[in-house]
Amino acid sequence: MSDLANTLIFESDTLAVRSIAVSEMENNVYLLTHRASGGQVLIDAADDFPAINTFAQQAAAADSPAAYDQAGAGVRALVTTHSHWDHIRALPEAVEAWDPVTYCGAPDAEAIAEQEGIEVEERLVGGERLTLAGIELEVIALRGHTPGSIALALRVPEGADAGERVLLFTGDSLFPGGVGKTNSPQDFEQLFADVSERIFGRFDDSTLVLPGHGDPTTLGKERPQLPKWKERGW
């Protein structure tokens, strides 16, 4: 974790996106830093809060040195992609240390409260366009892995004349090689439908998929496999 360059996913004059993996489950924790203000958004406080906290501080110092000690710098918002235990174990410590505004899919809020004692403040249904710490994110509901699973779409500049690219934080709903685990054929059908319509049906092949575990992929790489996923049922 001392070599932040290995965790860098995207950077521009206004924004940096980094990640680390924590716990025996190798959960990906994503951090978005607004360079002008130093404000940060954390996606999934999965486990090992001391490591996450150090990572966030190092990222703030590297990506927004002018704002590092200013009011408003640091983690201002914490988004949980879904309620499974391995994605929320550091949530209580993060809330206590940072006092961020917390977000999750509304149907998962009760499960998070039962497991970790955290009442998530902002409960999302999908379709919201949020501005968190100066960073704009679109919320996409992807039902099936859990009832309230969400993805977050971040639009970033590709270059002077190249338009935008989307970074898609998918939690455990979409991975290289398939959708996330489901517990019934009905849940699979729901998740496959949501991923097909709300992800593949809307975003182009250059879209970068950043899952809750493992390596990133692109929609272009995964799109040809959709019929196979549907046929196999997972």
From TrEMBL:
<dbReference type="InterPro" id="IPR001279">
    <property type="entry name" value="Metallo-B-lactamas"/>
</dbReference>
<dbReference type="InterPro" id="IPR051453">
    <property type="entry name" value="MBL_Glyoxalase_II"/>
</dbReference>
<dbReference type="InterPro" id="IPR036866">
    <property type="entry name" value="RibonucZ/Hydroxyglut_hydro"/>
</dbReference>
<feature type="compositionally biased region" description="Basic and acidic residues">
    <location>
        <begin position="220"/>
        <end position="234"/>
    </location>
</feature>
<dbReference type="Pfam" id="PF00753">
    <property type="entry name" value="Lactamase_B"/>
</dbReference>
<feature type="domain" description="Metallo-beta-lactamase">
    <location>
        <begin position="26"/>
        <end position="213"/>
    </location>
</feature>
<feature type="region of interest" description="Disordered">
    <location>
        <begin position="212"/>
        <end position="234"/>
    </location>
</feature>
<protein>
    <submittedName>
        <fullName>MBL fold metallo-hydrolase</fullName>
    </submittedName>
</protein>
